[in-house]
Amino acid sequence: MKPRVLVVDDEERMASVVAMALARAGYECETCTSGDAALAAVEARGADTVVTDWRMPGMDGIELLRRLHAKRPALPVILITAHGSVPSAVAAMREGAFDYLTKPFDNDELRALVGRALDLTRLERENRYLRQEVASRYAPDAMVAESARSKDLLDLVRRVAPSKATVLIQGESGTGKELVARLLHYWSDRVGQPFVAVNCKAFAEGVLESELFGHEKGAFTGAAAARAGCFERAQGGTLFLDEIGEVSLDFQAKLLRVLQEGEVLRVGGTQARRVDVRVVAATNRVLRDEVQAGRFRDDLFFRLNVIPVQLAPLRERREDILPLVQHFLDRHAAGGGRRLTIAPDAERAIAEHAWPGNVRELENVLERAVVLARAAAIVPEDLLLEQTLGPSAAQRPAVDTSGTLQECLDRAAEARIRAALEAAQGQRVEAARALGIERTTLYRMMKRLGME
Fold it and tell me: Does the reported pTM lie above 0.85?
């Protein structure tokens, strides 16, 4: 849609001239000859910015500005006056005007000023959307915490989030360690600053050093330009070091120095750089055992373990399972354009499952069930859990059960998708319709299963 500009001037000809100049820049313009008409137009049809004459009979531009901002504080208002002066500019800015122009003005200047005002409107809208998205994901009432252990965890996170102390999160894979790290960031006064996440296991040792600390130009083959590391990119915010138990003893010594000194030295550099970063580390190992085995430095462990956070596996907080099921079902069913429920026998199967993959496994199962469900209610067969594959091996078709449980379940989902694509002669839109999901959901599933 074209940006919408409201032009207000008691001289109809002047309003038309301004509107014509802005229309040539691709804006949708509406003209009004009074402040009252402008207020009514904004209320009825909205506006992305307002360009108004300063001096008008009745309601002048300043009064119109005040009344517009009383209802829409973020709406940019540009004032046009034939009596431009420093005092009038100061008065306009004090009242919250975006800027002002003095007659006679250049059309290019007008268009450039309106363009900047519209950029502000767009950024404000994007920021509002992002704030709403973050709040919906990380606000306390958006978190699923029915069990006593989960409620205690959230209470701990809320209490330690404002501090600068390092946090060590330990728990099995899939228990939500990164989510807790993001909560620590969101509930702290660093929320407006970067949150940078690094999986330490994903990099070779030499690459990890460059990734975290940065490098100077020519530090190694391929270093064509200097590059800031994650510590510098997280300046003022939070750095999340996942899989910290996987790094080597040599690298642990370098990391310890950074944590103790608050400075990083880029690879190939000679000048240390100060960093203000809150570090949150996570591991699925028991680091005390790693220390005793000589695989992890005890001084680094104590430096990271200032505030320990232990996440319980899903099997130890079963009160959370069904609320999590509903949470994930709402998310994935809505994304697929479906309205689904869970049949009672499917609920029982979910409640009795061991969930070795914890919350991540539960979400994957629900996403898959949304794809596989034939009816409005998800039944045990849609879940593809081990205990719901059938009454007996003799009654089941031959199933490839090699590999991990996740690999087995993914093969079943892939087979169902391939069958739908074959029946639809390769037409993905038709296949998605037959599977009862949105086309984008099908594309996402196919990409994850390596079918593209």
Answer: no
